[in-house]
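re: ur question from earlier - yeah i can do the single chain one, its not a big deal. heres the input i used so u can compare w yours
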Amino acid sequence: MSRFACKLLQCVNKTDLRRRSLCITSVRHVESGPRTVLVEKDSHITLIGLNREQQRNSIDANTAEQLTEAISQFEADESSPVGVLYGIGGSFSAGYDLEELEAEANRGSLNFLLRHEGSVGPTRRHLRKPIVCGISGFCVASGLELALLCDLGVMEDTAVLGFFNRHLGVPLSDGGSVRLTAAVGYSNALDIIETGRRVYAREALKMGLVNRVVATGTALGQAVNLAFSIAKFPMGSLMHDRNALLENANAYNRPGFHAASYNEILNVTSDMITDMQEGVKRFKNSDIKGPKTDSWHIKEKTIPDWEKAEIEIEKQLKKT
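and the output i got, formated as tokens:
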């Protein structure tokens, strides 16, 4: 077993007491850094907002700790049965912070994968309460893994999903391979993961990657409305049925889920560090990033001259 895997297993096998001390340390660290996760309540609905607008809400270590703490506090709040997770400033999340990722790669480090609950939040466990995700702008790479953590997704019609980390040589490490397959099926999951392509709203809704498509600028409001519509029901039976689904639904079976999510990290190798270094440099030096992700689209068919002539003759006949 590699030293990386041994270190991960040591991190996973902490006692409950150790986990509590880690939580306290996390809170202190969060308070010392900038507030990049904002929490407020609309009546009894908890709203959790990613607040790194200039970075398209990419998630660094500080933000990941704040988000983990915010979700844990929501789960402990008996007055709030349902939450909403969203991005401030037009995008949900562009994934893991590129500058921090570059620094980790240059150090030859994969330590960001060793965070106990996940590299961008508490993604290596099931949420104890329902959270609705409001998706706007870019929801890509680890940002998509974070959206998949939520129970339901409300996506704006101009938003974009995708595992763009494919272009950077960065592996999935926050339960994405498990949750994506459970949501859209094996074949669709392979397509999205292997091509790193863009997935737009209509396709995402059709394949079950999101649950609602709404007009641009309304994702947060519609997500809050959906949260209220869930919270109006008796929560005892709702949580019973939700938890039964998590226990019994294929890849979401809890023992299987934990084994699969940690398998994502245990199979990471040191060779990927080189891929990450080269991928980050390639991305930063690229003048045009958007169109490259659309290379999967079918090219327009070239019409031969003889066929053009036939079409022109048909047009003339229709006129006469």
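The first helix runs from residue 3 to 12. not sure if urs matches, ping me
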